[in-house]
Amino acid sequence: TKWKILIQEAVSLSARAKFQGQVKALLSRRYFEEASATLVSLLNLDNKNSWALAEQGWIAYQKRDFGQAINLLERALNLDPESACYHYRLVSYILEKSMDYFSVSIL
Predict the structure, then answer these.
(1) Whole-prediction pTM value?
(2) Are 50 and 76 in contact (CB under 8 A)?
(3) The pLDDT of residue 57
(4) What's the CA gap between 57 and 69, in Å, rounded?
(5) pLDDT > 90? residue 2
(6) What is the distance between the alpha carbons of residues 48 and 46, in angstroms, rounded to a whole number?
């Protein structure tokens, strides 16, 4: 049974690495819908995958959906509170949202 658990963990890690590679390739080409669909598949396998949540947040940010981007980053941070990258992204998204709000308010 110990070997079975180790094999399952290896398969799971391999599947996550495959999905991450696909997502990175899609995002580099700005194929946001396809990347998002791949991330949803990854989250269906592991709904506590902070990386997948953060990347979904990046896609929302690119679409200028700052509220959704912030929500997803907060969820990723709840799972991985030590991630400096997630903290940096969250602050960036909040600043961008406030700048977007003020630019619309002034116009």
Answers:
(1) 0.77
(2) yes
(3) 95
(4) 4
(5) no
(6) 5
